[in-house]
Amino acid sequence: MSQTARREAPTRESALPGVEIIARVRRLVVVGLLAALGYSTFMTSGKGYCPGGVAADGGFIDAAGNATETAPMCVDLALQPSPLILFAFAAIAFAAITAVLRRAQDIPSAIRYLDRAAAAIAILAVVSVTISQIWFAMIPITDWDGTGTFFYPFPFGSVELTTEPMSAGQALLVEAAA
Fold first, then answer.
1. How far apart are CA 150 and CA 72, in angstroms?
2. From start to end of 21-167, where are the E strands?
3. pLDDT value of residue 10
4. pLDDT of 20-30, one tens digit each?
5. CB–CB of 43/152 below 8 Å?
6. Under a CB-based contact definition with an 8 Å cutoff, are residues 71 and 59 in contact?
7. Contacts for 68 with CB less than 8 Å, ≥ 6 apart
8. Under a CB-based contact definition with an 8 Å cutoff, are residues 158 and 83 in contact?
9. For the whole model, what pTM was predicted?
10. In whole numbers, what is the pLDDT of the chain averaged over residues?
11. Per the count of CB atoms within 10 A, which of 56, 141, 145, 168 is most buried?
12. Residue 157: beta bridge partners?
């Protein structure tokens, strides 16, 4: 049997000076994109509440069970990603690249700036999703009486509030849930 000659694998990816920095910039961009995708995916949630319902005679009742002429107001909350957090991801990445260009004295210090920025983006995404989801879950929507305000997880998430009179379909859902 004959042996075939194998080419030795190069120890570096490229002979380009600063290839390590370029690889870390690429990693920073990938982490930023994945953080934005994960943040946007896990920041969608919703809940609603209709105080009152439909009486046996087909009229509406309020939250206390008293008959009323008008349909009770329903509230719907929708949790969405905050544009400020997405902007913060981009700002962290650009600030790190700027810091590398202005302050880095050598390759290891440049890599530290970029690694810290990637970690900051990932931590901000996880913290924002956690805070927003917990805060959103704790909004006392069942205490709503048609007036007042809710406190939202700003700037970690954005909440859209919609109020509308109860429809016949919502009344049937309220009855089925009870």
1. 19
2. 45-49, 53-54, 60-61, 67-68, 73-81, 157-165
3. 46
4. 999 999 999 99
5. no
6. no
7. 52, 59, 60, 61, 62
8. yes
9. 0.77
10. 84
11. 141
12. 81
Q: Report the alpha-carbon distance of residue 98 to residue 73 in Å, rounded.
A: 51
The token pair that represents 44 in the structure block: 């969608």
Identify the residue with better confidence: 138 or 143.
Answer: 138
DSSP class of 143: G
Which two three-digit tokens encode residue 139?
Answer: 């909004």
Query: Tokens at residue 155, please?
Result: 């700037």
Query: Residue 77: helix, strand or coil by DSSP?
Result: strand
- DSSP annotation of 141 reads G
136 and 159 in contact (C-beta within 8 Å)? yes
Could you tell me which residues are beta bridge partners of residue 46? Answer: 78
pLDDT of 158 > 70? The answer is: yes
pLDDT in tens, 45-77: 999 888 877 777 777 887 777 888 888 888 889
Q: Which percentage of the chain shows pLDDT scores above 70?
A: 84
The per-residue pLDDT for 11 is 47
Contact residues for 121 (Cβ-Cβ < 8 A; gap 6+): 28, 31, 32, 35, 89, 92, 93
C-beta separation of 124 from 89 below 8 A: yes
Spell out the SS3 assignment of 127-138.
HHHHHHHHHHHC
